Amino acid sequence: MYLAYHREKMILTEVKNFINGEFVSTESTLDSFEPSTGDVWATIPNSDKNDVELAVEAAQNAFLGWSSTSRQERSNILSKAADILERRLDEFAEWESRDQGKPVRLAKLIDIPRAVYNLRFFASGILHDINSSTILEKANAINYTIKQPVGVAGLISPWNLPLYLLTFKLAPALVTGNTVVAKPSELTSVTAFKFCEVLNEAGLPPGVVNMVFGYGHKAGEALVSHPCVPLISFTGGTVTAERVRLASVKYCKKLSLELGGKNAAVVFKDANLTKCISSTVRSSFLNQGEICLCTSRIFVHRQIFQQFIESFVQETRNLKVGNPYDDNCIIGALISKEHLNKVKSFVTLAEKEGASILCGDKSDGLNLSDDKKNGYFMRPTVITDVADDSRLMTEEIFGPVVCVVPFDDEEEIIYRVNSVKYGLCASVWSQDVSTIHRMAQRLQVGTVWANCWLIRDLNVPFGGIKESGIGREGLKDSIHFYTEEKTVCLQL
Ligand code: NAD
């Protein structure tokens, strides 16, 4: 009785699938938890193969109409969606925070504004994209190219930056004339669901975007292995990506994979330490360390190591952890109990291996209000005295845990940074442009930030190498991925 009453009070949102412009319930649902309280706050569809089938069918039916619209028409609808989302920024930020655990302030500053920007950026970018042509004088012929949409695009997104990453796929897929079936993470479905209202209001024709919610191994896998979905854009873990590759290989699908990282920051002795320390504290712990681009290994030149670590630990201790509604809180809750336990298990491993835990979990307590006592919080944790071959230094932790270790020279540090299986990004801190240039050339990553972190221009390619992914996203790269380029040769 109490439970039923409790659930009724807590469940605010009933997420439904969005198929052919309409919201559709499923027989079976899943509970979705609010990370900062540990309570159920939404139910989401437990979609299966049949739901995916309906969504794909709707997307197929809408394809001819949508792909025949002009770029300008598609751009207008996306721009309108951006305006509506911007007008509703505060409520979307609050939903993102409740669903994901991040501070509301962060969602207002980064997640939702970036989702708005994704829509605007591709809505305008597509208008400036031109095709190539050549003239063959001897044969008296002209070659020109046409970029055509691929068909029904399957978009699979993770829980860490839910609407931000979903719209980074949705916007280029739509402006290039594809129709879409999206499967957001089962842990964070709410803003994607609410965004469907925005798409309807913006005048997107029914069936152009369809969303199915639920488990990855069920709804996600059904989408990836569907023979009528020729393109899959996936952002998530490296292990899941293997299943995605295997399920799609039979159909020779176009694949874009944005995967995990074990990103390093390298701090040379001539670095501007004030700027470097505040930036690396941010790069280690922003969004609870749950960003694929977060720094996880910091290598500091031995001559400045002590000075660095003292200030770094001091600044980390100042980060307030707790209530996501509190504007002074920098660190919210981790996504789930299971993930919290996984992240904490790395701190236990550090203890077992005899590493030094300088601050955070196991050394500092949390001071949470009663309503947050069951939330999935942990303190940002700094670890040192750890070997390069420890799992702490090789595996993606994806939480507020960073390892800081010394190095002696450039040759050595290039080898150590490159010695992991991942290759997403790195940051280099030095005032010497030659050092930066040499490092940038030799680090095996998709993005190098020098004396900064997370400054992003959507015009430039983004993606990982090694086990951090396949393909690039960004204006030109995304247009390339979401289209098939055809050559026409016309003899005059
Ligand atoms: P995940 O791999 O568990 O899930 C990602 C998505 O895939 C979810 O929607 C999930 O439901 C779905 N999925 C799971 N199994 C599937 C299957 N068999 N077939 C099809 N879909 C399936 O990842 P996550 O835990 O949601 O996200 C964290 C991971 O994402 C981290 O490794 C992080 O580094 C990575 N990530 C990478 C980038 C990037 O741009 N490189 C950005 C954000 C997150």
Automatic annotation (TrEMBL):
It comes from the Eukaryota. Coiled coil: none annotated. Keywords: NAD, Oxidoreductase. The keyword Oxidoreductase applies. The keyword Metal-binding does not apply. Residues 25-488 form the Aldehyde dehydrogenase domain. GO terms for molecular function: oxidoreductase activity, acting on the aldehyde or oxo group of donors, NAD or NADP as acceptor. The active site is at 258. PANTHER family: 2-AMINOMUCONIC SEMIALDEHYDE DEHYDROGENASE. Belongs to the aldehyde dehydrogenase family. This is Aldehyde dehydrogenase domain-containing protein. It comes from Lottia gigantea.
